[in-house]
Structure formats: structure tokens, C-alpha cells
């Protein structure tokens, strides 16, 4: 999907018993899964990651500003290499 290729997958986190899973809500791409010792921990981490991801989305610049973001990312890459 185009949106995923441009912006990366939009992962949503959920838990099923002791397993936390994450998958892209746009295209359904399976990000992965992780097991925790208890179901409570799995649910807690799923909630925390899900919230973090949503916060990040809220800060994301509108699509019109994307070239600027890419420019900044390219600059960062150059400096670090
Ligand atoms: Zn996706």
C-alpha cells in the first residue's frame, strides 16, 4: 500500500493471553509477536505501545511537509555516515 511505503506501517498493538501482537491497521502486515510471562504484562505492554504509537502519529507533520522531513532525514543520514 502506498501510504505504508511512504510513511511506514501503522502498527496497532494488541494482546492475546500472554502474547502481544502487532500488525499494520492499513494493510494488515504482521509486525510480529512477543510473549510475556503473564497475560497482564502482555496487555499492559500492548496498551503502552499502542498509546505511544498514537502520540507519535499526532505529532507527525501533514503530508505537504513530507519533502522537508525527507530532507532533514537525508541530512541526518549524511552527518552520521
Ligand atoms: Zn502497512
| Main structural class | alpha+beta
Sheet-strand content, in percent, reads 15-25%
Segments where pLDDT lies below 50 for 5+ residues?
none
Instruction: Tell me how many strands there are.
Output: 3
Helix content: 40-55%
Q: State the distance separating the first and last CA atoms.
A: 30 Å
Count of domains: 1
What spatial order of strands do you see in the largest sheet?
1-2-3
The chain-level mean pLDDT equals: 82
Are any ligands bound, and if so which?
zinc ion
Q: Report the biggest beta sheet as strand number plus sense, adding barrel if it closes.
A: 3 strands, antiparallel
Order of helices and strands: HEEEHH
Q: How large is the count of helical segments?
A: 3
Secondary structure elements and their pairing?
Elements: H1 2-7, E1 11-16, E2 19-24, E3 30-35, H2 39-59, H3 66-80
Antiparallel strand pairs: 1-2, 2-3
Bound molecules: zinc ion.
Zinc ion (ZN) binds next to loops.
Give a written overview of the molecule:
- This protein has 81 residues and is an alpha+beta fold.
- It contains three helices and three strands; from the N terminus they run αβββαα.
- It has helices at residues 2-7, 39-59, 66-80; strands at 11-16, 19-24, 30-35.
- Strands 1-2-3 form a three-stranded antiparallel β-sheet.
- The chain is elongated.
- The mean pLDDT is 82.
- Bound molecules: zinc ion.
- The site of zinc ion has 7 residues, from loops.
- Zinc ion is lined by residues 1, 4, 9, 24, 26-27, 29.
Amino acid at each position: 500500500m502506498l501510504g505504508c511505503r511512504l510513511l511506514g506501517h501503522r502498527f496497532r498493538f494488541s494482546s492475546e493471553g500472554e502474547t502481544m501482537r502487532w500488525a499494520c491497521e492499513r494493510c494488515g502486515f504482521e509486525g510480529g509477536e512477543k510473549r510475556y510471562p503473564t497475560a497482564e504484562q502482555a496487555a499492559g505492554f500492548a496498551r503502552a505501545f499502542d498509546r505511544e504509537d498514537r502520540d507519535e502519529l499526532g505529532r507527525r507533520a501533514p503530508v505537504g511537509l513530507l519533502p522537508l522531513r525527507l530532507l532533514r532525514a537525508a541530512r541526518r543520514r549524511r552527518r552520521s555516515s
